[in-house]
Structures are given as structure tokens and as C-alpha cells.
Specification:
Two copies of one chain form a homodimer. By secondary structure, chain A is mainly α. Chain A contains 22 helices and five strands.
Chain lengths: 456, 456
Amino acid sequence: MRLGPLLGPDLEEILRTDPSQVTELAEELHPADLAELMSVLATEDAVRLLNALPEAPAVAALDELELPRRVELFGVLDRDRAARFANLMAPDERADLFAELPDEVRTGLLARMEQEEVKDVRQLLRYPETSAGGLMTTAFVALPGDMPVEKAIEEVRAKAPETETIYDAYAVDPNGTLLGAVSLRDLVLGRPGEKLQTLMDPSVVSVGPEADREEVARLFAKYDLLAMPVVDLQTRRILGIVTVDDVVDVIEAERTEDIQRLAAVEPIEEAYFATGFLTFVRKRASWLILLFVEEMFTSNAINHYEWVAIKVASLQLYYPLIISSGGNSGSQSSALIVRSLAVGDVTLSDWARVVLREIGLGVALGLILAFIGFFRVTLPFPFGLGNPMQLAVAVSMALVGVVTLGSVVGATLPMVFRRLGFDPAVSSAPFIASMVDVVGLVMYFNIAIWILRLQR
Amino acid sequence: MRLGPLLGPDLEEILRTDPSQVTELAEELHPADLAELMSVLATEDAVRLLNALPEAPAVAALDELELPRRVELFGVLDRDRAARFANLMAPDERADLFAELPDEVRTGLLARMEQEEVKDVRQLLRYPETSAGGLMTTAFVALPGDMPVEKAIEEVRAKAPETETIYDAYAVDPNGTLLGAVSLRDLVLGRPGEKLQTLMDPSVVSVGPEADREEVARLFAKYDLLAMPVVDLQTRRILGIVTVDDVVDVIEAERTEDIQRLAAVEPIEEAYFATGFLTFVRKRASWLILLFVEEMFTSNAINHYEWVAIKVASLQLYYPLIISSGGNSGSQSSALIVRSLAVGDVTLSDWARVVLREIGLGVALGLILAFIGFFRVTLPFPFGLGNPMQLAVAVSMALVGVVTLGSVVGATLPMVFRRLGFDPAVSSAPFIASMVDVVGLVMYFNIAIWILRLQR
């Protein structure tokens, strides 16, 4: 639903004249739609809307609002009202907010908030944003293992308004150590008098707070989870839970990041039109410059073999064809391996098998292109350029070499990056292409020297 | 967890000598782990395992097993046993299986299955695999709107073993028309005697069976859903529900597909090592050939301007540098727009704003590269190639032109593909690069003719 164009002008009018009318809106709209509205309104109108709404729907919408906008609004809201909102927000969304707030706003809010909420924020901020600890919420239901079912249902009922999900509760011992998961399904299906210990799932899948969010997403996908506890790996105390709605958001965010990285753009979190011109320039220029500098070596390569290029002027006709074929095959291999590494189909220890496979694939694909290339070079116009047979042989051989090189480099570079602790997706298609371009040209010149028996 | 290496040899031994021992395994392992085991075992061992397991865990594992393997196993299992498994499988997983089974196996199974299950398979197979109808399951709880809470809880309890989720039930009228959603949370929190009509959510988000799975995923992400009803858009009758675990799988699958498409690989569903050599060649060769043919026009371009290239031999030093800069900037823009179109940040009607923005970005980024390029051309070795000032001006101007061209083509092509009804992601980085290469070279030659005042 694109609310902006529909509600925009009228709503702005109402907000400026009689903001109290918008309370109805809160009843009609889903918090996610209310959040969407806040993200398309001008800042001052969004603040008017937040001030006019009752607290509960305002907080629900803030929980859904995209982070950069949320940070912006908290910076301009009345500090006391903002602190009340912060007290009521979902712990995980609140922690994300505080991680991004300017220092001055953060201290101002923390000074006005309830003690317990301040402690909660501090605790959650200990973990990196992209870790399980950074994703988790502290609003979950923990129950003693010896509690009977009917009592547990009552506890769950009572805690429902302030917990993130009531579909999964957790049985703990008096120290808070996780004993097992108790789903609402188990509770509803349980016999009266039955203790949690006997109906819980003791082999519940859990992670430590430092686990990467990609790993968390993988476990949710594999085990079809709705929620997963995050536990201290030493004491097994339960620290919080991650819920599936946040995991869906994580996967969508990682998907955007993958695509941007693979296209050599520094990750951009905001929407296309919400991102400033200078931000775009910055996020794109750094990679473009790096790739440009990398690609400069092609000029050196051509310069070095200038005598060859002067002797056989037609060589230059095929520079782009040859180097782009290497780049294309490299970008295919790198995409396949980046994704296989991410889902765990391929691990670093498979490197030798991968290299062997890519050599085979590169040779097979290179031969196909070489076959087409051969006719392209020798056939007369309009199908080809009517160049001599020997040049065609040199171009064809160079194609096999460069496509194989591209395949191998494209497949191994992501593994090297993973080994060095970087995101394999930074070995983007353009990055691989520029590497392959230089070596590909050198290969082409040397094959030409050999086949055409050239001498200085 | 990588079970293969751990359990492999011993387990194979047991399966071949005394398969009855594996029943314990079924109690210890999560169905997802059992499925992982089946996917790493040799086919005959996986069949032995399936035959040795009790029916319930065997079916649970089959529901989790990746589709190509599932199809393979159903092809070799004893037909009667396979039909019993099929009767018990989750309706959505079963439909996916039947969509892929060879005709002969499918008819053999349908002839042996229960009438009701056969009808269910036929109904679900009416919808394309990538639609909401193809994702949905028919195992959901529908209850009359005037049913009181305590009765509803009992119904939910009774139907729990055969439904996909009990966390969302649906209130319907006698014709099966959807009235609203009733979550288990609502039921547990409801007062005895309260009717479903009063506690249900009447504005539940739903889709038609033809909706694309990307749209389904977008709604789940936006509204933090656990399940969503699929309704006939005319009659509003509820046809099935989509559950969040399948949506997580969809997003992961789409993520893989995006990455492959953007790197010019036809989507490959199976794992890297599970995909055959020839499949890889086929999925990669089609695109490589297309790009190769597209790139051939660069040879024509250079051939056409051969007189220029002969007069100023140093022109060729910068072919790769210039064309790759256009391709890089194009791949950045296309990735940004492909993703923005997918999440809905940019729509087709925004095209003019996008083009204007990309022109601005292209010029800015092009100027940055032109600045570096200028010194690269003029400075003496080792920093540059010591070429004359005029050539440097030509190279710099060509860089601004080609980077802008890349930006604009990269941003508009995905929109054109969307308009024509294709997946915007097929406007992959390599595809855009090849287009930009040809035009970029022509631009470079013409700028050189103009700046260097060349004449035939």
C-alpha cells in the first residue's frame, strides 16, 4: 500500500489545523501502515502526528518505523514525550534506536527513562547489531520447570501484553538456566497438572549472543522456528529470544546488502530516494576509484606489448571481447561460490575440489566461446572481420585461457576473502573482472607472439 | 550441523546389516537433521533409512527434504509405502513433490492414495509454484464465527495434529467466506463465552492465489505475520494459508536467484556439488554466449575507427580502462534499482526522477575518475604513461561520458525489463556492461577525433 499519495495532502492539512482528528487513523491503520505514513510525511508533520496519537499506537508505529527515520524523529521530539515512548518500545527495537542516536539525545533520554528500561538498553547494547545478541529481545516468558500447565497458561496470559511472543515460553531453573522450550501449542494440548518439565522440548535449538545474524537466519530456515533463545554459552542462562519477524527482516536486509556488495556498492540502508546525493557518490566512488586504479594496469600491459600491437594492428579489435569474457565467467563463478558459502553448501576445506571443477567448467565454456570466436575472426563481413586464420587461433586460445582464469579466480577469491575474515561478497563481479582483465591481456599478447611467431 | 562426515560410515554399515537399529535415531534427531542425513547418504542407503524408520518421523523428514532429492527418493521407493507417505505429508510439500514427479510415478502414487489427499493434490497443483496458491497449505483451522472461545480452543486442540499451525485459526461463515483471523493468543486471552466474531481481527491481511511469492514475502515482512490466508478474490472463500516458515525459505531462494541472475547465471536450485557438470555448463553457457555475441560489436566499432586507431596508436592503451568504468558504474546503478524495485522503494512511474538522478550521479562520479585518469595519462612513468595533454583530455571526457551512460543504462534497463514483464534482475551487470562497452568505445573515438582534430 502506498499511502503517501493517497493521504498526503489532506492529512497534512489536518495535522496543521486540528491534529486531534488523527486519533481515528490510529484505530483504522495497522501500525506498519502508520509507520509507512510517518516515513513519507515531512519531519515536522510526522512529529505532529506522533504528538497527536495516543501513546500505544504511536509506540507500535515507532517499533515498525525504519531505523534512520526513527533516529531522526527521536532527535526532534519533545524529550519527555520521547522518553515515555522509549520506556514502552519493544526492547530490541529500542536498543537499535539507542545504538544510532547522537550522544546528546541518548543521554537526555536515558536520564528521563525508568531505571529498569535503562538497564535493559545498556544490556542489549553490549552486543554488535549484527549478532544474535543485537537481534534479541528481553521481552520473553520464562517459567519454572516444575510449574503445572494450568498455572503456566495463567502466567502466559498475564505477561502477554508486554512480551514479544506468547507462542514460545521457556522453562528455566532457579538460576535462569534454560531447561527447554514450551510452546503455547504444548500448553494448550497439555493435560491439567502436567509439569512443564515433562512436556517441554529439552533439545531446543539455541545460540550464543555473539553468533552472527546470518547463522541465526540459517537455523530459523532449517528448523522452521518461530523464536529461538539466546543463551550465555558458559552458564546456559537465557539472555533473550530472537523472533521470526526480525529474522525475516534480517534476511531481506542481507539480501539487499549482498546485491549491493556484489555490484561494488558500499551497503546503503535507506530507500533510493531517501538516500542523499552525496551519500550515493561516497558509497559508489570508493569502489569505482579502487576498480579504476586496478584497471589502470591494463594500460601498462598494452603499453608493454606496444611493439606487438603495432606489428599486428588487428589485435586490438579483440581486447574488449577477450577481457569481458573472462570477467563474465568470473562473475558467474563468484556469485555461485559466494552464495554456496553463505548457505553452507561449500566450505573452505572444499577449495581444491572447487578449483578442479572450475578449471573443467572454464575449459568447457572457453571452448564454446572459442568456437564462435574463431568464425567471428575469420569469416568475411558481415559475419566476421575477415582476419587471417592464425589470428583466429590466437584469439580462440586466449578465450579458453581467459575464461578458465576467470572461473578459477571468481571461485577462489570469495574463499580467500572468507579466510581473511571479510564478507565473501566483497569479491564483487567488477573486482574480479578488473583482476582478470590485466592477466587476460598479457595472456593474449603472449599467445599472439607465439602463434604469429612475432619478433621484436 | 554437518552430519555426513560424523555419522556416515557407521550409519551406512548399520543400514546395510541391521536397519532396525535406526529407529533410535528418529527419536534423537530433529526431522530437519534427519532430512540433512538423507540428502548426504547414497540413494540406496537413504531408501534403506526411509524403510527402516517409523512412518511419522519418515514423513516429517520427507517434508523437510530438499525437493530434488525428495523427487528422486519417491521414484525408487516401494510404490505402496511411498503412497502411504504421500497421504501423510504436509499438503504444500506434497503438492511441490507431485509437481516435479515423472508422470509414471505420479499416476502410480495417485492410484494408491486416499481420495481426499488426491483431491487436495489436484487442487493445489492448479496454482503456479511461485504463486501464493503454490505456497499455501490446506491444513488450517476454520471455525464458525459464532463459536464461543472455549469451544474454539477445543476444536483447535482436536485439529492440532493435522494442521500446519495452530497459532492462527480463521473465522468463516457457512459458505467458507473469510470473516477474520483468530490467533491462539486471542483465544487464550479471550473471556469464556465470548464469540469468535467479537475477538477476531476482521482486517486480516490476505492475498489471492495468483499473487506472486515476492509479494507474499513483502507482506509478511511488513506486517510481521506468522500466517496469511489465501482467498478467492471473487467469493472471499478461504482456500488455504501460507505459513512464515515457508516464507523464510522463499526469501532465501529468491536471494539465491537474485544473485545468480545478476551475475548472468540461469537460476540453479541444487547445491554446488549436487549440481552436475553439464547442468552448470548449460546454465552458464547460454548467458556467456549471449554476452559474447553482444560484445562482438566492440570489434566492429574498433574496426570502423581503425584509421583513428592507426593515427594515434596510444588510443588503444585506454580501451579497457574506459569501457570497464562504464560497466562498473552501470552495474552499481542496476543493482540499486533492481533492489529498489523489488522492495517497492521505486516504481516504474518514478523513471524520470531516476534518470535525472543517475545523470547527476554519473557526471559526478565520472568527473572523479576523469581527474585521476587525466594524471594517469599525462604523468611520466612510473605514475603514468607520459602521453600528451590532448589525449588526456579526450580520455577524461570519454570517462565522464561513459560513466554517465553506464549509470543511466544501468538504472533504466531494469525498469524496461519490469515493464516488459521480465524479472528486472536479468538486466545483469555483465549484460549492461556489454551494452555500454560498444557505445562507450564509439563515444571515445568520436571525442578523440574532435579533440585531436583528426582527419582521414
